[in-house]
Input
Amino acid sequence: MAKVLVVTSGKGGVGKTTSTAALGAALAQTGQKVAVVDFDVGLRNLDLVMGAERRVVFDLINVVQGVAKLSQALIRDKRLETLWLLPASQTRDKDALTEEGVGNVINEMRGKFDWVICDSPAGIERGATLAMRFADAAVIVTNPEVSSVRDSDRIIGLLDSKTEKAEKGQRIEKHILITRYDAQRAARGEMLNIEDVLEILSTPLLGIIPESEEVLRASNIGSPVTLNNAASAPARAYLDAARRLKGDDVPMTIPSDRKGLFDKLFGRRAA
Output
């Protein structure tokens, strides 16, 4: 029976879709059967990040409306045997997604996969509430900026009130994923530090993804960063985050500035 995970954020542009693809690929690399589902109707991007945009024939709305079977709409990844994508519609109206229809699709997927990862639209509109509705756990993606963190706090409130689990009096498992973290800028006070973010959100930390051109480079060629360059700093951070999702005890490391580290090393040698 699959664990349903929603990847969500209050603010757009924080790396939510990139994180969905990277975490999905990282979990699939461990042999788990993973499906990533794009809920961003009209503004789909997950198929681009996964490098599958030319292979989309049917989409989530087609399955919800009974036009296509789930097996017809799922796209298997070209690089990983255990990773699938269920794309969003680029043209249909968001109102075409119904709670009953989405619930039926998610229930069918629960029996076929180990993980179902829902890529939510940013904010609190209908697509976002449906993406989180049937989730067992949530990853809230935030940048270390005041506006992003404030909006994430609002999303946490929705997760605790609008999900099926919340209505049953159960608590949804929540994790914070901090993206685009720059140690130098945090030290200069140009962005919030990790402690500030965690103090505001009071939610367990899943991982810290450093600011890196590798993430953009991977997205531009249609590959999750965890597959494109597994040795890069952001890929290692996502791989560690995926292991934590599985329940592994992985030490948390705060990305530091390499130049500063080398300066310290050479400074010590000179002394």
